[in-house]
């Protein structure tokens, strides 16, 4: 009996040791998993929306490649709609001669009086700079284009493009540098995006307008054109019908709604001024023929 009991105790000890080792392993895995929180597979958060046969999932679906030729472009979009957030994608644009090729990354709501926040990269002849156009639509009204050149070659590597959207401001960033701010000016009657929006990205044929107003055409002998995307984790407030609503998306429980994100700090303000001075070559706010009287948000 004694021997059997002793043996049982050993078995218990061995199994306890096993459990201990197992939990250590699990803890280690969790630390590892936390280090890798940004590694979210494409299909966890996004779906292909068009041009299925022009989409490639790469590196265990942590990278997506869209391609465009004469037959089609392609696009993808988030599964969910969001009511606020600090959104990002890492993008590497099509290289070489990409005139007429548009790579887009934007948030958009559904319906005719829609809200939309746009990054649009307008391709160009090899060696000529790619334009980054941004636009803001609220209640169906856009016509707020700004255009900049970038301070790096966006076709050479991945760069991070971000959109902050809370109740105080919308900020477009390139590699954490603010390039545009659209403040909430509802108090002076300027509509502000408020509708649930999905995140969309696409590669499409903009030959009729994108490069030199459509005069520089796509060189189809360079097709297929390829844009690559990474960074599919989403910092946003999902709108789930009948549970979460727009109001909850303004809650301070979301970090991008905290005071730090209500306006740019002085360093960011300097960075924005620098971009405007050095890289912006079109701003609807200073387009006098188009707007003899600048839109009200331009004066604030
Ligand atoms: C189009 O690309 C081909 C191949 O690189 C080149 O020979 C041709 O000159 C290009 N056409 C234009 C209009 O740039």
Automatic annotation (TrEMBL):
It comes from the Eukaryota. Contains at least one intrachain disulfide bond essential for its enzymatic activity. Keywords: Apoplast, Cell wall, Cell wall biogenesis/degradation, Disulfide bond, Glycosidase, Hydrolase, Secreted, Signal, Transferase. This is Xyloglucan endotransglucosylase/hydrolase. Its EC number is 2.4.1.207. One of its GO terms (biological process) is cell wall organization. GO terms for molecular function: hydrolase activity, hydrolyzing O-glycosyl compounds; xyloglucan:xyloglucosyl transferase activity. One of its GO terms (cellular component) is apoplast. The active site is at 116 (nucleophile), 120 (proton donor). Its main location: secreted. CDD domains: GH16_XET. Residues 7-229 form the GH16 domain. Belongs to the glycosyl hydrolase 16 family. InterPro entries: Beta-glucanase-like, Beta-glucanase/XTH, ConA-like_dom_sf, XET_C, XTH. It is found in: Secreted, Cell wall; Secreted, Extracellular space, Apoplast. Catalyzes xyloglucan endohydrolysis (XEH) and/or endotransglycosylation (XET). Cleaves and religates xyloglucan polymers, an essential constituent of the primary cell wall, and thereby participates in cell wall construction of growing tissues. It holds the Pfam family XET_C.
